[in-house]
Fold this protein.
Amino acid sequence: MTEDPLWRLTVAEASRRVAAGALSPVDLVEAFLERIAAVDARMPSYVHVDAEGARAAARSAADALAAGRRRGPLHGLPFAVKDNYDVAGLPTVANSRLRLGHVATRDATLVARLKAAGAICLGKLSTWEYGTGNGGEYGDTVFPTTRNPWDLARFAGGSSTGAGAAVAAGTAMFALGSDTTGSVRLPAAACGVVGVKATPGRVSRHGLLPNCYSLDIPGPFTWTVEDSAIVLGVLAGYDPADPVTEDVPVPDYPRRLAGGVGGLRIAAVTDPGPGFPAPDEAMAAALHAGLDTLRGLGAQVVETRLPVPAEACFALSRFIGPPESASIHEAEYRTDSALMGTALRDKMHGGTLQRAVDYIAAQRQRRVVAEGIDGLLSGFDALVTFGTFRVAPRLDRQDEMVAFTVETAMTPFNLSGHPSLVQCTGFTPAGLPLSWQVVGHRFDEATILRVAAAYEAATPWRENRAPVR
Amino acid sequence: MAREQGTGPMSELHTLSVAEAGRLIGARRLSPVALVEAVLDRIAAVDDRLNSYILVLAGRARAAARAAEAEIAAGGWRGPLHGIPFGIKDNYHVADLPTTGGSRLMQDSLPQAETATIVARLERAGAILMGKLNTWEYGTGDGQVYHDLPWPVARNPWDLARFTGGSSTGAGAAVAAGTALFALGSDTGGSIRLPAAACGLQGLKPTFGRNSRAACLPNCWSLDHTGALTWTVEDQAIVLGAIAGFDPRDPSSATAPVPDYRKGLHEGVRGLVIGIVRDLGPAGDAVDPANRDALEDAAARLAEAGAIVREVALPAPLSAYQAVAWTINWAESFSIHEQDFLARRGLMGRALRSKMATGFCVRAVDYIAALRERRRLALATDALMRSVDALLMPGAFHVAPSLREPGTVPAFTRDTACPVFNVTGHPALSLCTGFDAGGLPLNAQVAGRYFDEATVLRVAQAYEATTPWRARKAEPASHLPEPIMPDPTLPPVPPELRAEAERYAARYGLAGLSPAEVAELALLFDKAASAGLAIPRQPGKEDEPAHVFRVPLR
């Protein structure tokens, strides 16, 4: 029996081995660089691999260990970030012709925290231009389109296109993406990994290229729920450089994973409301089966409904995202819109023409959504519902790609500010990942991780790795 | 018209300051019943000309006065506001009373279910509500007075031909004329400080978040502040101490502790660093010479009292703050009144309608640009504020304009440095700095650090104590001069602009515009677009708006 390759290690297992002196950061980083060399040309998940930087960091991580200094739980563990995070010395292109030649001079706060915990940055992951778009792939931005490691003909989910693919394919042990109306959770769903959108204010946005001030949230991608708990524990917490972060205590997420779901009250939303076509049968069947699993584990599951249908929430987000994006990229739009890709330019056109009163009306309605979901959650420990309604679409089906991105149950929780994560709930007969979404009370990421961990432990889905080789 | 104060404190009860009346009541030398009767007498004597009230609550006030008298007689004196008569701008809700907002749209509305937090706090402190005070419609407008609201405009007690300043028109008139001992107003771009300036009062817009806004009609969420107009600085300290502090009913309310504002009020300014702002950029050229001279005199008096007066400059010209304030105000105000504007704009007065039409035309990117520029201005201004103990600078640039010269009226609201502190959120007080040769009040502004109203009041108190202005009282004349209507003629509108406005109106559901309305909309469309494009754009994409969605949602 041959041992699993190192790129298949979870964060938790690699962390244990490194701590025990059984695994060298140098070997681990080499294994990932080899994996990238072996498979990434076909996906591709990276836009920039910093092999030299990673090797140097691995050597110094190994030296530190030899000297008895382990910097933290992520010591020697390789990660990568969506190319809208600044990493000092590396370009932040964000898949935009407008940023070619840009090199960051500082680390984003989250990157700095990961490095301080000993993690090693392998490079920058692909993204839609400026972390946004309309679901369509027009092939008119800087970098080639990322492909889904479960089926290279399919979409990897956006806008954090490279992050989901990298973790699923093992080109990074974990990754950072960013979520405005699903951009962490969509790729996580498409690629069968765990993606966490924390509570706004929980994780710093400093050094992340903004897409929409009032909705953007950075978030981690990992293979397992435990890994998310470990990484989120390093990322979370107050940052004076981000005016939205809150100075609230960060629990010990990995320790809080245990305990299961016995006795927890879980709200189940299996009907996302009118407006969108019904979710795929396979996705719905997985949701129902998963709820049965939670019941079997002792949770009390109660069917309920969203206070505002998912489609209405998405419609609201269309009056918040485009005008804020248009404000952010206004100068470039005025002078260099021809350098923008179609998806971004279309969004700028719309956002530029919108009226202030409609933007303000959407922000006011957002309070209604937030208070409604607060009310819904008040009698429950967590909520389980759909993430995406469909499996990853084929890249040559533009309409299905847009539907995959738009028709989801994710936007309500961006509007409301409740933490949510996506995890894998199985596979279609064709081997494509299914998924669901677990939502919690504000600043209670610990409980959604606990629910997801209990589900994960009761199901076999983590044994199945993406077939790309 | 003005005269010096009478011979003794009891001679004219309505001229007592809050502090004086409170001391007399606390010493049981004055009955709340007598004080309330004196104020009701004063209302009966002058308010037919002054128009400070929309609604006088004589029965309610008398009952409260009797209860206060009994409570105090039984040894239950609640403090310096017990038995003190006050009025509130008619955009504050009081349970079981209608709120009109000075608008025909709310003229016959039902009684309210709840009382504004700060009104309830005053009543709990024993103050006696005399009634609801006049206001510009919904506390806003376009700066002009069109005499088309259900209640005639309040008049300035120093000269009944003159405007009181807006939008807390009745509050300014009432406190200056003694139809209330103090009043609550609200301030989005100067609406407490401008009437205070025009009427010779002390008007404080505290730090954003210091005073609750719960159950007060909104005008612009980002810039609205509540606060009081008083005759003396000490009165401000007393009232602020009663109303300030966290309120879970107001999501913008701050948890910062509330000090005892009377403690330290009289400690003087020795050693305090007071920055004087003389140069406000080109927009500041309009400051009246009399206000400039009074500002210099105030600086000299403070220096003489031991303050270190140092000339400083705001980090941006006044016009930058004004531009940001207006775009935010137009857009949010329109969001608040959108349904009424689309369905019932004929019931709105022209001043509100014109503001609504402007807000109707603001683009989201320009509004967001203004919020982003607001953050930059607030941070830069705060850096200046932290380098001094207080700022002394112009407030309203002009004395109260005459309603018989309507062409001069909008300039009173336009030419002010008040919006600076709505944009930045710092506390700012309009201080009476004397009177011009015609007997009209002059003013300056004292501003301070966030949540440091105490120092603002201490500086203002030091100035007030060295000047005789509080002894001069307004006595409204018996004759009410007729106003002259503003000229309704619009400048010519190019046909293509008119067509553009017409298409835009139709596109966004504004139907049935008369040709004159289309012409006005076209001009405002142009104004909103030019103003929006003139908002400076931030150099960095990370430079975000002054407020973004925060959790926990309050």
Notes: Chain A has one domain: 6-463. Residues 6-463 of chain A form a domain with the Amidase signature (AS) enzymes fold (CATH 3.90.1300.10). Chain A touches chain B through 42 residues (CB under 8 Å). The mean pLDDT of chain A is 96.
